[in-house]
RNA sequence: GCCGAAGUGGCGGAACUGGUAGACGCCCGGGACUUAAAAUCCCGUGUUCAGCAAUGGACGUGCGGGUUCGAUUCCCGCCUUCGGCACCA
């Protein structure tokens, strides 16, 4: 019998499919385990070996958990709305639905030929009306809760093409020589900021990589500060600024507001009006990129107006500059150039005064000092003094004083912005809102609201989506009067925000998910995907989940209990795989050449799952050889009958086996698949060396290997007369007594250098170890003529002599 | 600039809690089997010095210090690479 991977893999994939081997159990009588992949966008270029890494990892876990007696939910689906299919439609007129269907079919086939044990009866597709009905349903809940609102938001507008660009398209178009400007458009926005605090707090209970949690915390960017009012005597109003350094208020020497600040033009005095207007105009033309560009020289214009510092009554000039963000805090800042590098730069450029109010190790005229570990100076008035106080105390005293005078208020701010939720595109979930002639809005009455067929997929020249051209879809009348439907669609993030819930109850037409099923299956026990989703997808999902929690739709505060990011697989040239570099290793190509089991094992053997690592096609040869050796545990080289023996394994082999069971079990639990595979290789090599082909040993190897290489192990399992599927076999359990050593090798060191070894029982006491160590031949000469200063013995490990010449 | 991760043979990587550095695999070299090849199996493989050889010595985990009987592992100071953020006041 030869190992014909191609025939074997086809055979078992067909059988798993025919026998529904991996259908999720519906009885809630066993412990459950929900293991989920980040579902893919089915692109036209197909899957490459990098995509398969995470899927292989979850599949190993799914199969392992099943053999440990768990009821496992391991589903797959498609995040199929999105730009590429739409761009293809614009170019060729092919409906995105067809493109999507084709790509999904190709993806599904590749995944099946990898032997992944998905429950395909639960497949979901975000573009399926039965699915996006519930995406729209969630949107309407957000709307009812006041968490979805409309607002004028700047979009990336391409003048020549008359289209709104997604952020990721901007660079590309600029490179092609198009101009992109910011243009305000009325859009849907989700109030994710209302959940900022909970999104930070609940991170603590999650079993996620620390760096991902940190990235989310930074993204949300919570800060504690004070909003301070500066009187504008000539305008009978005041300017509100936000600062996290109220302790530096006495050092404020000017104020700056953003060009979009409502007072920007009003504060301009007659002589400055032209300059101010032209500055505001120029700012408008700059793109986001140009404004936030890094080493950009500061620019600004003086309004001519002055404000009063509430701490010391000084009058401070009010400037306008685009380095102040409109959308953060109040869009206005107090500048303390001595202790803030941006203010310092600005002050130097426009020759504004710099005043030290935190004791600095150097002259603040020469360089800024931003340290918080120093004490305040020059900071007192008739009512309050913070001189000599450290940051925290100074902050509190100033904040309290300002609050008592009604000049300020403590305020928590977040960097996180509300989520712009609409796209001017065709291929997305329609936003189910009607705009009535009287200016009111109402939800669509029937969901799903499906996409109409269109002739052309181009956006309209006003920046609206192609839906705005479809009169019969667009307009209608009901008891509230005539209406026009919303023409914006949802962003690609929408469908992926809640798909993990739909897998639990994929064809329920009456509910998003049936509550008892939801309670049984949630949370997701293990979620594996790329680090590129560390912030946005995972934050948006968590936000929606919390909303659903508040609605009582879900029973858990968080969706994903344990998260794991697989590292990217690079091309053989150590570069990121990309079509343009020509270093992509297509999945189908290696599958044809080496088979699914070899690809699965090799991807896991490459290195730690979380690590970025290059692909090397040579390396897969070693895995093929290993599979050959596994095959020959059962079949002679050219034999026709199994070489299996019915005798018991010898004691040494038995011990070796139990050690391997322990190691493979522990490593699989911890997703350390590379070392688990290494251990199995060692075990198989030793069985061959010992000529041990006992049924017990071989079947143990097959069971340990089966989550990793399911096809070959199924075949050999069957060859050995077992049935019906190795996936039903229970995971072997190790005997701690057998898995531990009786006799170990003790290292003997002299002054920390290895000079010899000897064998000793594990329990051998220290004194005896030292005596034995002194007798080791290779050690003796290093002790001769030396005085032993210290003798260290670590039972089970080593003996070390610290010596000095006599 | 700030936050985070990581630097180990020719290559991917291994090493529990401070205890024999380089498991496992690739590549490479030598050999067995074969008419030959494929497949398979065996041996060698960090650097360097001494020796005909068996063998033995020194060095070696990014760099420089430190703690320790003993450091890839802990501490201090650097360098480099990768990922994220990028005027958030």
Task: Give an account of the 3D structure.
- With 806 residues, the chain is α/β, with parallel strands linked by helices.
- Among the domains are: 222-414, Alpha-Beta Complex (Isoleucyl-tRNA Synthetase, domain 2); 741-805, Ubiquitin-like (UB roll) (Roll).
- The termini are far apart.
- It is built from 27 helices and 27 strands.
- Helix 22 packs antiparallel against helix 23 and helix 23 (695-705) packs antiparallel against helix 24.
- The protein has a four-stranded parallel sheet with strand order 2-1-20-21, covered by helices on one side. The protein has a four-stranded antiparallel sheet with strand order 6-5-7-15.
- The chain is globular and about 100 Å long.
- Strand 5 (148-158) and strand 6 form a beta hairpin.
- Helices cover 36% and strands 19% of the residues.
- The protein binds one RNA strand of 89 nucleotides through helix 8, strand 9, strand 13, helix 11 and strand 23.
CATH class of the domain at 222-414: Alpha Beta
What is the alpha-carbon Rg in Å?
34 Å
Q: Describe the sheet with the most strands.
A: 4 strands, parallel
Overall mean pLDDT score?
A: 92
Quote the distance from N terminus to C terminus. Answer: 69 Å
CATH topology of the domain at 222-414: Isoleucyl-tRNA Synthetase, domain 2
């Amino acid at each position: 019998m030869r190992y014909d991977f191609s025939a074997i893999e086809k055979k078992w994939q067909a059988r798993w499919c025919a026998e529904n081997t991996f259908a999720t159990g519906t009885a809630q009588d066993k412990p459950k385990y929900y293991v989920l992949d980040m579902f893919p966008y089915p692109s036209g270029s197909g899957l490459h070996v990098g995509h398969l890494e995470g899927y292989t990892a979850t599949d190993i876990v799914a199969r392992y958990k099943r053999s440990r007696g768990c009821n496992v939910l391991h589903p797959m689906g498609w995040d199929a709305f999105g730009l590429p299919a739409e761009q293809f439609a614009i170019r060729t007129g092919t409906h995105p639905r067809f493109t999507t269907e084709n790509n999904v079919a190709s993806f599904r086939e590749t995944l099946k030929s990898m032997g992944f044990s998905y429950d395909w009866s639960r497949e979901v597709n975000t573009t399926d009306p039965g699915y996006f009905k519930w995406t729209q349903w969630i949107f309407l809940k957000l709307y009812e809760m006041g968490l979805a609102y409309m607002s004028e938001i700047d979009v990336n507008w391409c003048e020549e093409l008359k289209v709104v660009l997604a952020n990721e398209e901007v660079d590309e178009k600029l490179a092609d020589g198009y101009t992109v400007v910011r243009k305000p458009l009325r859009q849907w926005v989700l109030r994710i900021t209302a959940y900022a605090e909970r999104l930070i707090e609940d991170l603590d209970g999650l079993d996620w990589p620390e760096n991902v949690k940190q990235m989310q915390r930074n993204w949300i960017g919570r800060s504690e500060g004070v909003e301070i009012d500066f009187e504008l005597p000539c305008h009978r109003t005041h300017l509100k600024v936000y600062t996290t350094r109220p302790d530096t208020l006495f050092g404020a020497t000017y104020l700056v507001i953003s060009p979009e600040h409502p007072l920007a033009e009003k504060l301009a005095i007659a002589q400055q009006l032209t300059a101010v207007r032209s500055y505001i105009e120029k700012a408008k033309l700059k793109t986001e990129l140009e404004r936030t560009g890094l080493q950009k020289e500061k620019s600004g214009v003086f309004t001519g107006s002055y404000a009063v510092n509430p701490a010391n009554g000084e009058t401070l000039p009010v400037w306008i500059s685009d380095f102040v963000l409109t959308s953060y805090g109040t869009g206005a800042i107090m500048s303390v150039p001595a202790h803030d590098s941006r203010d310092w730069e600005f002050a130097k450029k426009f020759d504004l005064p710099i005043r030290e109010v935190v004791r600095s190790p150097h002259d603040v005229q020469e360089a800024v000092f931003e340290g918080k570990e120093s004490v305040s100076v020059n900071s007192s008035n008739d009512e309050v003094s913070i001189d000599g106080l450290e940051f925290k105390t100074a902050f509190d005293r100033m904040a309290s004083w300002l609050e008592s005078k009604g000049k300020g208020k403590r305020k928590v701010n977040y960097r996180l912005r509300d989520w712009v939720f609409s796209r001017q595109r065709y291929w997305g979930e329609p936003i189910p809102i009607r705009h009535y002639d009287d200016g009111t809005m109402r939800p669509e009455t029937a969901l799903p609201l499906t996409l109409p067929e269109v002739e052309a997929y181009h956006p309209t020249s006003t920046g609206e989506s192609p839906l705005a051209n479809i009169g019969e879809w667009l307009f209608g009348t009901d008891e509230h009067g005539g209406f026009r439907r919303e023409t914006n669609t949802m962003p690609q993030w929408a469908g992926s925000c809640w798909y993990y819930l739909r897998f639990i109850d994929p064809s329920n037409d009456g509910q998003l998910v049936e509550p008892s099923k939801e309670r049984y299956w949630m949370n997701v026990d293990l979620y594996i995907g790329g680090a590129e989703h560390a912030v946005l997808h995972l934050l948006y999902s968590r936000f929606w989940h919390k909303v659903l929690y508040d609605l009582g739709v879900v029973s858990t505060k968080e969706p994903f209990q344990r998260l794991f990011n697989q590292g990217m697989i690079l091309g053989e040239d150590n570069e990121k795989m990309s079509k343009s570099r020509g270093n992509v290793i297509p999945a189908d190509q290696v599958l044809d050449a080496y088979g699914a089991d070899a690809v699965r094992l090799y991807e896991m053997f490459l290195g730690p799952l979380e690590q970025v690592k290059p692909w090397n096609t040579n390396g897969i040869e070693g895995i093929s050889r290993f599979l050959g050796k596994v095959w020959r545990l059962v079949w002679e080289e050219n034999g026709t009958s199994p070489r299996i023996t019915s005798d018991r394994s010898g004691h040494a082999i038995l011990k070796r086996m139990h050690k391997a069971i322990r190691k493979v079990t522990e490593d699989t639990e911890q997703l350390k698949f590379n070392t688990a595979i290494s251990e199995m290789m060692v075990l198989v090599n030793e069985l061959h060396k010992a000529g041990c082909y006992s049924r017990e040993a071989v079947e143990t190897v097959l069971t340990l290997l089966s989550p990793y290489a399911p096809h070959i192990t199924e075949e050999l399992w069957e060859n050995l007369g077992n049935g019906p599927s190795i996936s039903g076999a229970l995971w072997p359990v190790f005997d701690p007594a057998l898995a531990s050593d009786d006799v170990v090798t003790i290292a003997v060191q002299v002054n920390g250098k290895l000079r010899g070894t000897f064998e000793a029982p594990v329990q051998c006491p220290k004194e005896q170890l030292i005596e034995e160590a002194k007798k080791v031949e290779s050690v003796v000469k290093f002790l001769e003529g030396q005085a032993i200063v210290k003798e260290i013995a670590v039972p089970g490990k080593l003996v070390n002599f610290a010596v000095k010449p006599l």
